[in-house]
Amino acid sequence: MSALITADREQAVIAAAPTRLYIDGEWRDAREGRTLDVVDPSTGQVLTKVADASPEDGWDALKAAEAAQKGFATMPPRQRADILMNAFRLMHERKDDLALLMTLEMGKPLAEAYGEVNYAAEFFRHFAEEATRISGGYQTAPTGSARFLIHRQPVGPSILITPWNFPLAMGTRKIGPALAAGCTSVLKPAELTPLSMLALADILHEAGVPAGVVNIVVTSTAGEVTEPLIRSGIARKLSFTGSTPVGRKLLEQCAEKVLRTSMELGGNAALVVFEDADLDRAVEGAMLAKMRNSGEACTAANRIFVHSSVIEEFSQKLAEKMGAMKVGRGVDDDVKVGPMVDSRQRDKVAELVDDAVRSGAEVILGGEPAAGEGYFYPPTVLSGVPRRARMWSEEIFGPVAPLTPFDEEDQVIDWVNDTEYGLVNYVFTNDLTRAVRVAEQVESGMVGLNQGAVSNPAAPFGGIKESGLGREGGDVGIDEFLETKYIGIAM
Ligand code: NAD
Question: What is the pLDDT of residue 1?
Fold first, then answer.
């Protein structure tokens, strides 16, 4: 038990957590009275029950968002910015409860949960600043016979769907720009981790978000609830973060009424260490790119390619650092690796490791799921992972570092690009020309140069290929929730 987090404190934060649906500015039970269990993945025990929405509840939420859209679109940008700043401050005031709630429902170490609360809140501050900078244009037609006014307007009611791995930040990354642009929304968080987003609803309410402008609908039957809403055409936008197969299905549904879409999907990042890299820096970068969120991140280094002249030293250093990480409940002191989010995820990691070993990889560290309660998988380092191993092309989503040696720059660029994904890649080299050359050739929306993390609210986050469409954050993040209208004026 942590010196700070007692069992009483855990129970108190769970007892105080909102567990009902947030629709039209009110807390409601699900219409059919259904509930779903929220489980602590470090123990397998039920933490609490949360209202489990039916399609009718989903409709109520979308109708509330539709009704609120017209009024909200005319709220002065400064007022929208003030609401976002209120929410930013409230998140900081309540960071102890938010972080603990997140650790309990998702498993990540408490220090990382604090990091996520900060990161999540930053989206509100960033988009508060953007809300008052929505610009347009004025132009003379080439013939001189007309003038063009370029005006930006909110897209309209938006459906936002988020995953479990960053339960708070994936929500604020969508709600922030939606509010800044003047869009109302219905957000459906992952059913494994609904408590963080419901706690955020409480904050948004207190921050002054008008009734109906943000609605939070938790459900164990995601498809049944969201598909009719998407197909209705009432919502004009879908912003989704999650797996590529689900994203593909949702894109098909959006096609019917031609919804605007933002898709933040899966990744298969490579991390490349050239022979001229600062090796200690590369090891630090690999630790961050691999072990952040215990590997349960779309940006996680899924394949680590190291020049054959330095791979032995690199793998020893990496295994030493990963082996020193304490595994346990995220609330306990000094824990650096929490449980996988559920047994399915833990079993998938185990399956991919077994497959890599059968394909010829050697286990340097870990390699077996932990026995006992909770869904733990230990930090694992594999060397000599060949192309035929499934983890070369499938997301591991766990604390497993697969190393493969390479000799030539061209060869490793081909390997990096040998995937349908294109979210992020990491490159470690001290040769500036090579850094630029490789960064330009790798197929991804983002590149970490001599750094193992790229997530920043002020930068345009997103992928290419089957990793997605659109960008979240940066100065383009708000564009995803704005339409451009051109008004032609005869002269
Ligand atoms: P998932 O696709 O299973 O679920 C994501 C969300 O979609 C959840 O809320 C889920 O309930 C919902 N969902 C599932 N099926 C649905 C359906 N038929 N209709 C509507 N909604 C549905 O993904 P996950 O397991 O929660 O998250 C892990 C995935 O998310 C990984 O692939 C990871 O790479 C990706 N991810 C991407 C980013 C990014 O920014 N690119 C960030 C975080 C996670």
Answer: 45
Q: Is 448 buried (19+), middle (13-18) or exposed (0-12) by CB count in 10 A?
A: buried
Atom of ligand 1 nearest to the CA of 247: 2
Average pLDDT, whole number, for the chain? 97
Judge if the beta carbon of residue 264 lies within 6 A of ligand 1. Answer: yes
Position of tokens 């050359």? 437
Residue span(s) of the chain under CATH 3.40.605.10 come to 7-265+467-487
CATH fold of the domain at 269-456: Aldehyde Dehydrogenase; Chain A, domain 2 (3.40.309)
Separation of CA 163 and ligand 1 centre (Å):
5
Pocket residue to mutate for ligand 1, from 259, 298, 461, most atoms within 8 A of Cβ: 298
User: In this structure, how many other beta carbons lie within 10 angstroms of the beta carbon of residue 82?
Assistant: 16
Ligand 1 near 469 CB (within 6 A) = no
For 382-398, the pLDDT digits (tens) are 999 999 999 999 999 99
Instruction: Count other C-beta atoms under 10 Å from residue 138's C-beta.
Output: 9
Name the residue among 345, 356, 358 with its Cα closest to residue 398: 345
d(CA 17, CA 199): 6
User: Which of 291, 461, 431 lies closest to 439 in space, CA to CA?
Assistant: 431
CA 408/CA 307 separation, integer angstroms: 8
For residue 242, which atom of ligand 1 is closest to its CA? Answer: 30
Active-site residue, 298 included: yes
Nearest to 235 by CA among 174, 168, 194: 174
pLDDT given for residue 2 in this prediction: 54
Strand partners, 188: 161
Distance CA 198, CA 20 (A): 8
Q: Rounded to the nearest 5°, which phi and psi values hold at 408?
A: -120, 145
Taking the mean position of all CA atoms in its chain, how far away is CA 305? 25
Per-residue pLDDT averaged across 174-200, rounded?
98
Q: How far apart are CA 228 and CA 250, in angstroms?
A: 11
Please report, as a single letter, which amino acid is at residue 300.
Answer: A
pLDDT digits (tens, 9 = 90+) for 43-86: 999 999 999 999 999 999 999 999 999 999 999 999 999 999 99
pTM over 0.70: yes
Q: Which residues in the chain are classed under CATH 3.40.309.10?
A: 269-456
Residue with tokens 């598909």: 227
Q: Tell me how far apart the alpha carbons of residues 72 and 63 are, in angstroms, rounded to a whole number.
A: 14
Architecture of domain 7-265+467-487: 3-Layer(aba) Sandwich (3.40)
